[in-house]
Structure formats: C-alpha cells, structure tokens
Amino acid sequence: MALSGLDIFKLLPKTNCGECNLPTCLAFAMKLAGGQAKLEDCPYVSDEAKAALADAAAPPIRGIVVGKGDKQFKIGEELVLFRHEKRFINPTVMGVRVSDTMSDDELSAAVEKTKSNSWERVGQRLEVKLLAVKCESCDAGKFKSCLESVRGMCDLAIMPMTEDPEIMKAAIDVIADLNPLLYCATAENIDSMGALAKEKGLPLVIKGNGLSSLAELSEKAAALDLKDLVLDPGTRNLKDTFEALTAIRRAALISKFKPFGFPTIALPCEETDDIFFEGASAAVYIAKYADIVVLSSPEAWIHYPLQVEIQNIYTDPQKPMAVDSKIYEIGSPGPDSPLLVTTNFSLTYFIVSGEIEASKVDSWLGIVDSEGQSVLTAWAAGKFVPETIAKFINTSGIAEKINHRKLIIPGYVAQISGELDEELPEWEILIGPREAADIPVYLRNYVSAGS
Ligand code: SF4
Question: Residue 201 above 60 pLDDT?
Fold first, then answer.
C-alpha cells in the first residue's frame, strides 16, 4: 500500500536543509508521495527509511525494458492519466506479428517491410521496434528455427508467442540473450512459464480473462517473485479492451492498485480480420493506454499515421519542439551561397529548410536558439532580437566559411533590420520573405541578381 505524504515525512530527517531543491522536508514528502520527486534527491535518508520508503518512491507503473541494443525500449513509468497534467513518459511501442507457419519468403518479406517502417519527422525517429513471433505450428523445432531466422534478419526486439511452456522452453535459448518479452503466462501455465521467465531473467506478459482474473494472476506472479510484467487483459474486442486498458491505468495511478502497476499490451491483430478496423482500434489503444500495440500488418500506410499519433501524444506539451542551434547546410553551400537565419522551433526549421531545398539554391541556414519558439513569438519574447542574432552570427563560425557579409532575416521581423545593422556593422541585412512558401522565388532572384 502506498504511503501518504505525512507517513513519508515521519521517516525524513526533518532538518529542512533544502538540498533536495524544496524548502522543507514536508514539501519533499508531498512531492515524493505524488511521484514528482525521487528519493535519491535527499542525501540524508537513512538506510532503514530508504527500505520503508521504497514503495512510495517507486513509480506507480513499473518501468520494463525489452530488447537489446539500438531497438531496446522501455515502457511504463507513467504518472498521469491525462497528458496536460504533466506529460506522458515512455511512448507506446508498435509491433508486427509474424508466424512460424510462414514460408521463408513470406517471413523475410514481412521482416524487411517491418524494418523499413522508419521515418524521421520533426527531428525525431519514428519506427516499429517489436516483432511478435507467434507459434502457430505447435512444433517447438519449427518455432525455434523461426526465432533463429528472425534474429538473423533484424535487430528488432522480439516477443515469442506461445502459451505452451514446453515449446517456449525448447525454443527460447536462441534469442534469450536479446532480452525478449515472453508471451504469455496464463492462469493455467503461470507456474512453469513464470519459472522460465525467472530462470532466464526475462520480462513476461501475463494474460487474464478479464480484469478480475488478471489481478489474481498478477498477485500470483508477485508471489512467485516475478517483477517485470506486462499486462494483457485478454479481452479481444474494441469495447472491452478499451475499457480494460482504461480501468488498469486508473487503478494503477489513482488507487495505487499494485497488481495493475505494470505496462499493458493490446493485440488488435488478434481482434479482427479487418485491417482498417484493426488500425482504428490501434489508434484507440494508443490514446488509452496501451504501452505496446501489435498489428498483423507491416504495411507503412497503417503504421505511419499511428506513429504520428504516438509522437503527438508523447511530446511534452509544456516544451516546444526544438532543433539544435547551429549553422545547417542545405544542399552543398559554398563561400558565395546565401545565408538565412531563423528560430529553432522545429516546425519553423523544417518548413524553412524544406522550402530552401525546393529552391535548389544551396544555402546556409543559421538557427538561433529561441527556446523552441516561432519567429514572431520569439521576437515578442525577446529571444529573436538583434542582440541574440548578432551573438549567434559572431560565434557560429559562419564568417570563416563565406566570402560575403549578407544576412537574410525573416520578413516578419523586418523592423529589427536597423538595430541588427548596428549590432553587425560589417554585415548587410537583407529582408527575406514573410512566408516560407515565397523563399524559393526569393532565393532564385537572389542568385540571378548576383547577390
Ligand atoms: S534534502 Fe532531505 S533533509 Fe534536506 S530538506 Fe530535503 S528532504 Fe529534508
């Protein structure tokens, strides 16, 4: 049972030293109880108190790591029900299901397509990270060889799927060092599947038959000292799965109900044969509240919009998306190429760089740190003003790369050109277009005019 703020306060040193960046021990206790502070932030907690506080300090939903290497991912550790309350932490992971009954060619095509689902969008990499390999042959040898083939073809995290502990045991060694997610333990096989997960030190999905049986199964898993669990409510239709995922998240965060304090998995691939309905169901589960969603198809048209949904939900609403402040080369700019400058709001950067690319005029693009704000907002906030632009230009090293001293600023801040002239006396300040869409024409005119 989670401790209250006052329970925690009783175990703290009560010196109000402030080293935890909070004014009092009571304030720290309240934050710790709400999952908004870490126990390590107080250097003076005794070992006895640490042991007693371990429960309160742990996130209400345990973090689970799956896979190894680049495609390793972490799920869970969520603290809020709604994104606007703070932010969501670990994005939903998308997976694709393949089967050990597929031919070699079918398997290879599915794995290759799954691997190709990788896109860069506003500076972030969106990709499918999990391959769910289902044993449909009921043949341990075939399952094992399929897992071995998958391992040889990709570095995606793997989720071997069988409810037969003997088959899992016979096949798992070929991928056990990759930290796969075992699917799954049920009320019938929890002892043997749990023992296997424990012996290999692997995370395990437990599948209930509705919420009550899932809670019982989770308690049984806890009694077996299994800690890295992922919850599958066992529901296999949109309404029930949506309700179950929501109830699990609410129980974990509001009631601190420990059996549900784990990440969840949804399998729309097992709910319908209609790929469009499967995609729509996945969209619902991403929003509420699946940590892993597995589809039957590796096709990009179904994965890309879902990845964009995940990206939108899991960005921090209090922190604008920003790119690094530096000089970017668009194309292959040389000493005579034009130099433009704008802010580091991601969308601004991607729109402006896209239009420069479209112009086919190789250019330098200076991105000034405006704390992720767009041009006019940053100007109004004093972040994109002559002093900051001049400081950026003077420290960026661009002067050593170009022969000219012409700087193109966004048309929306034409009013700062006079002051910028004073800040950069050796430079000629040119007013660029107000709208990014007009950049190609502007740059082509710039080149044809010889400056
Ligand atoms: S660092 Fe520890 S002792 Fe100091 S105020 Fe914070 S909780 Fe209290």
Answer: yes
Residue 172, sorted as left (phi over 0), alpha (psi -120 to 50) or beta, turns out to be alpha
CA of 41, closest atom in ligand 1: 1
**Spacing, Cα 8 to ligand 1 middle (Å):** 12
Handedness of CA 398, 402, 403, 409 (dihedral sign): negative
46 lines ligand 1 (CB under 6 A): no
Q: Report which of 156, 153, 128 is spatially closest to residue 68, judged by C-alpha positions.
A: 156
User: In angstroms, what CA-CA distances link 241 with 217, 255, 284?
Assistant: 18, 20, 10
Among protein residues, the one with the nearest Cα to ligand 1's atom 8 is 25
Report how far residue 424's alpha carbon sits from residue 386's, in angstroms, rounded to the nearest whole number: 9
Q: Is 25 in the pocket of ligand 1 (CB under 6 A)?
A: yes
Average pLDDT over residues 235-242: 98
Q: Which CATH number is associated with domain 327-448?
A: 3.40.50.11600
For the CA of 45, the closest atom of ligand 1 is 2
Mutate to test the pocket of ligand 1, among 28, 32, 38 (most ligand atoms within 8 A of CB): 28
Residue range 5-57 in CATH 1.10.15.40: yes
- What is the CA(19)–ligand 1 centre distance, in A? 6
| Residues 61-90: tens digit of each pLDDT | 999 999 999 889 999 999 899 988 888 999
Cα of 384 to ligand 1 centre, how many Å? 40
pLDDT one-digit tens code per residue, 345-400 = 988 999 999 999 999 999 999 999 999 999 999 999 999 999 999 999 999 999 99
The residue whose CA has the least distance to atom 4 of ligand 1 is 17
Domain boundaries, the chain: 5-57, 64-314, 327-448
Superfamily of domain 64-314: Dihydropteroate synthase-like (3.20.20.20)
Q: Please confirm whether the linkage preceding 17 is cis (ω < 30° from 0).
A: no
Does the CB atom of residue 285 touch ligand 1 within 6 A?
Answer: no
Give the Cα separation of 111 and 131 in Å (integer).
Answer: 8
